[in-house]
Every structure is written in C-alpha cells, then in structure tokens.
Amino acid sequence: METIINNTFINEGQISDILQKYSKPDQAQVKDVITKAQELKGLNLEDVAVLTGINDPLQLHELFETANFIKDTIYGNRLVIFAPLYISNLCANECTYCAFRAKNKGITRKVLNQEEIANETIALINQGHKRLLMVAGEAYPKQGFQYVLESIRTLYESKTDKGNIRRVNVNIAPLSTEEFRQLKNENIGTYQIFQETYHRETYSKVHLGGKKRDYNWRISSLHRAMEAGIDDVGIGVLFGLFDYRFELLAMMQHINELEKVFGVGPHTISVPRLEPATGSDIASHPPFAVSDLEFRKIVAILRLAVPYTGIIMSTRETAQMRRDTFALGVSQISAGSRTNPGGYEDEIENEIDGQFSLGDHRPLDEVIRDVAGMGYVPSFCTGCYRLGRTGQDFMDLAKPGAIKSHCGPNALSSFMEYLNDYASSETKKVGTELIEKTIKELEGLPKDRARKLVDRVINGQKDVFC
Ligand code: SAM
Ligand code: SF4
Q: Which residue among 45, 185, 207, 250 has its CA within the 20 to 30 Å range from the CA of 237?
C-alpha cells in the first residue's frame, strides 16, 4: 500500500510564529543552542530560528567555529568530488529563473543521443571522475521516460582502460512511484530534487507553466521516491527566491516529515544560490538576494541542524566561496562542471547555452590541487552505496568516528587512484604528500586500513575500499 502523503507538513503559520519569536535572540538563547549542537544530535525548528537571528560578529564567529568542529568530528578532512552531466536542456516548464525554460528562445536546444552521452561520460572518466550527477530538463520527446533509464545505463556502461563511473546520482523532475521503482532498478545512487522555494505564494509566482507549477506534486516527490525504495534522497532550496530564514525552517519541516514517515531523513542537502541565466531577469536580480555572509551562515546553520546529512556545494559559487564553506560543513563538491549538454566533449565553455553562469571555471586537476593544498582529501569513493550502506544503514554507521574509520581510508585509496591515473605531476606531488601526512596522523584501525588500501593502489590495484 502506498504511503498517504500529507502535503500540509510545510506549516507556514508555524514558521512565521517561530521566526518572529526568535528574531532577536539573546545571548543565553544562542549559547544554549550552540551547546546543544555540540552534542551532534541536531537541532529543532526553534533552535534553527535562534541561529538565523544571529547578527553579532562574536556570535557569528562562534556559530562558524561550531560548524567547523562538527564537520571535523564527523567528516574529517574528506571532500567528495563529482561532476554533473546534463543530457538535455529541453524543458516544458516555465521556471522564470532558468535558461532552459520552454519559451526561452536565447539558447540552442540539445537532447543528447546515447552515443553523445557515452562520449560525454568518457570525457569525464578521462578527467578522473567516478561519480556523476545526471541532470535534465523536464521533456523527453522521443522515448519518454525510457530515455532517462537508457541514459543511466549508458553512463554505467561507458568504460575506458582506466576506469568507469561507479555511482550515478540523478536530478530530474518528480516521477510517479512506479517510475521511481524503475529508476531504482537502474542502480542509481541518490535521487535529488530541489523544492526551489517552500513558500507557496512565491512558488506559484516563479513557476509559470508546465507540470512544475504543481507545488504538491513536487513537495511529495521524495515520499514517492522513498516509497519506491530509493534510500538516498537529496533536498535543496534555490536561495534568492524568498527569505532564507523561512526556507531553512521549511526545510527542517520537510526533513522532520521524511524522518517521521521513513525513519530516515535526506542523504544530502544542496544550497544553490540564484545565478544569472540567459533570458532570465529574476536570476540577475534575485528578490531575496543572499549576501556572501548570509550564505556562509546558511551552510553553518545546516551543519549544526542536521550533522549527518551531506552538504553539497556546486560550481555556481566562486572558488573562494567554495573554499570558505569547506570549513563550515560542506562535504561534497562538483568540479570542472559544464551545464550545457555536450559541454565536456566539446571542451568549450558555453555559458549562453548553460543552465546558469558558473562561479568556478577551473578544471578538475586544478580544483583537486587547490583542495589538497588546503589539507582536504578529495574522495572519489563510492564504497558505501556499492556495499549497500545506504539510507538508515548509512545513518547508523554515521556515528562520530565511524564515517572517519570507513570513509577516511576509502577516500585516501580513491584519491591515490586518481593521482596515479589522471593527475598532473604538480597535483600528484601535493596529493601524495597529503596522503602520507594524513595516514601519519591517523591512529589504530583507520591507520592500518588506510595504509593497506593505499599500498594496494600504489601496487597497481584499482577500486579498493572497505
Ligand atoms: N529540471 C529538473 C528540475 O527543475 O527539477 C531538474 C533539475 S534542474 C536542471 C537543476 C536545478 O538547477 C534546479 O532545481 C534549480 O534549483 C537550479 N537552477 C535553475 N536555474 C538556476 C539559476 N539561474 N541559478 C542557480 N541554479 C539554478
Ligand atoms: Fe526546466 Fe528544471 Fe529549468 Fe525549471 S529548473 S525550466 S524544470 S530545467
């Protein structure tokens, strides 16, 4: 029997009341929330409201320090790396902020065929990627939904002598429960979908046509995905459309609802900020623009509120903003991204036909060198998902120390594999030093595991993980 979905779990009245009550929190209230967050058990709506009310520089500093403490305790110095693969920019919807919207005449439409998708995948494998996020507009004219399923198969089947893609995550429009079952059968990793804005009035103002106009269909999509057996789901808000304080509390209501119904919340949270897009006015003039400081605050608050949920930072943001947010809780980043279908094989950065403009244009090798130079270990690991450690199982494992003892060694071995197979000599030098330094600083079981796994890769083995 299908789960009955309660579409009223976003309670706008409750959010407004709580935000008003804690709009100017006193020092004791902030201190209490920070102390509670240090226990790594997450926060409730009221706590999050208190944190959104912080403006005092000293309190902000404390918030950032706490976010850094949590990130460090749970995730260590690991940063998971992925790239988006846009298979089509055709779309039947009218999202006012997006270059792919149906009536936008300013871009060239492209629906990649399977051969072109294979070529894109090979181009990404040749850069060193192991995890992809498949993205598409909502219109599959020739084969319908079968196009999506076939494209995932192509992504997994494309191979070079050095490797293949080991995890395909998907960001496409909401599906029916039956379609989600078919998606699950293709062995996808995470299914992610962003509500864009949880505020109903704003939602209807910015979504002018197509199926995406239906707020309820979208808000209930992760229920259907989980109902269909997809354990790892990702949520997100497009920051800039409405008040970020409201969005954070609504996001908490969404998370609480998934936890209540399925016993586990989302695997990841994405924090896209509105970027300029061809043919979109609102994208260049966000009605609720989020400043850089507020953006860092958003990441830090999420790190305190849901410590075990991964936070994803895309190349929408500049290299500097990405660097700033690693310490505040970001655990996954995309790198070397193109948002125009066919953009990897062409090797041309075509901003006009992309979905939005990028803030970080650096190639993967440069991002990896930069990240490693900062002391973060880029991870290409896909072990958990391939060993069935997903959903609740992953969350059970994700106790302090446990992520570190599995994911830490796996990150190092997958990074070593990248360095052997794809890195420039400069990056290899920085990366090898970091791997050795990291192993040296480990103790006990994680140290033994890391040494053994890394040595196996040095001796020519691939795809080793525990
Ligand atoms: N078409 C599907 C959908 O809308 O759900 C799939 C994903 S869409 C291609 C990916 C995401 O890009 C959207 O959910 C939206 O949050 C984001 N996006 C769209 N326009 C953007 C812009 N101008 N700046 C930043 N992100 C944008
Ligand atoms: Fe289409 Fe998604 Fe862009 Fe909306 S955000 S126009 S649904 S691609």
A: 185
**Which residues touch 115 (CB under 8 Å, ≥6 apart)?**
none
- DSSP one-letter string for 372-434: HHTT-EEE---HHHHTT--HHHHHHH-STTHHHHHHHHHHHHHHHHHHHHT--HHHHHHHHHH
Q: Decide the pairing of beta strands 377-379 and 131-136.
A: unpaired
Q: Residues with Cβ within 6 A of ligand 2?
A: 91, 93, 95, 98, 100-101, 137-138, 173, 212
How far is the C-alpha of 432 from the C-alpha of 419, rounded, in Å? 8
Phi, psi angles (nearest 5°) of residue 333: -135, 145
- Centre of ligand 2 to C-alpha 188, Å, is 21
Residue of 233, 238, 312 whose CA lies nearest to 266: 233
Between CA 168 and CA 170 the distance in angstroms is 6
Distance of alpha carbon 463 from alpha carbon 416, whole angstroms: 10
**CA-CA distance, 222 to 218, in Å (whole number)?**
8
Give the three-state DSSP class for 197. coil
Ligand 2 site-directed mutation target among 86, 87, 95, most atoms within 8 Å of CB: 95
Query: Rounded CA gap, 386 and 232, in Å?
Result: 13
Of 256, 238, 244, the C-alpha closest to 49 is 244
Residue nearest ligand 1's atom 3 by CA: 173
Q: Determine contact, residues 220/7, Cβ cutoff 8 Å.
A: yes
**pTM (two decimals):** 0.95
Longest CA span, the chain: 61
Cβ atoms of 129 and 380 within 8 Å: the answer is: yes
